Inverse folding.
């Protein structure tokens, strides 16, 4: 996988396979500390200590759709290659949290990719799941929670063209507004050099 957004998609699908009803995705960029943190937290079935210890083995997976679980080992390798780490905490019956940390400026750090598109795919593809997405760059943040939207739609499907366009624009504008501040600061930094 060449983008962090694709890893997020994989982790979220793991959460769904684990029976999660709520999945919270957090992406935090902190350029002052030179860190990028990605966290996917769910309320699924969780894992015991034995399963946690075997999690980075690519030949262990709980999915029935494939025989190998490459997602977490690849994400762990990507984080460690960028002076970071991957932490997984889980408790049977309570859920799992996967958190990866990267050196933000590392030359080998993969790009974030299409965060808005990834979240849109999850929200539309799995409407029975409660999705919460937090994106933060240097203290500026955007949060998307699909629960109020679903309540306002009162049963209207998310795949309805007008609804789909509205959700896509909301996600893209939210992500872009937070990113724009970062790029504006970077432009000012280069202009002052």
């Amino acid at each position: 996988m060449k983008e962090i957004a694709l890893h997020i998609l994989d982790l979220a699908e793991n959460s769904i396979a684990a029976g999660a009803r709520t999945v919270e995705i957090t992406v935090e960029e902190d350029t002052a500390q030179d860190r990028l943190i990605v966290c996917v937290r769910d309320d699924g079935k969780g894992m015991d200590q034995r399963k946690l210890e075997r999690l980075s083995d690519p030949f262990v997976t709980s999915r029935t759709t494939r025989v190998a679980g490459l997602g977490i080992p690849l994400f762990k390798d990507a984080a460690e290659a960028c002076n970071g780490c991957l932490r997984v905490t889980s408790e049977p019956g309570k859920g799992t949290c996967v958190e990866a940390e990267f050196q933000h400026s590392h030359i080998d750090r993969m790009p974030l990719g299409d965060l808005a598109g990834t979240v849109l795919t999850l929200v539309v593809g799995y409407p029975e799941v409660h999705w919460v997405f937090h994106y933060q760059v240097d203290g500026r943040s955007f949060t998307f929670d699909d629960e109020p939207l679903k309540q306002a739609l009162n049963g209207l499907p998310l795949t309805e063209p007008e609804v789909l366009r509205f959700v896509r624009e909301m996600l893209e504008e939210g992500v872009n507004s937070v990113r724009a501040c970062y790029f504006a600061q970077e432009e000012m930094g280069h202009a002052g050099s």
Observations:
- DSSP finds six helices and six strands in the chain.
- The chain has one domain: 4-191.
- Strands lie at 22-30, 35-42, 85-91, 95-103, 130-137, 140-145.
- Helices lie at 4-17, 49-53, 71-80, 115-125, 146-153, 161-191.
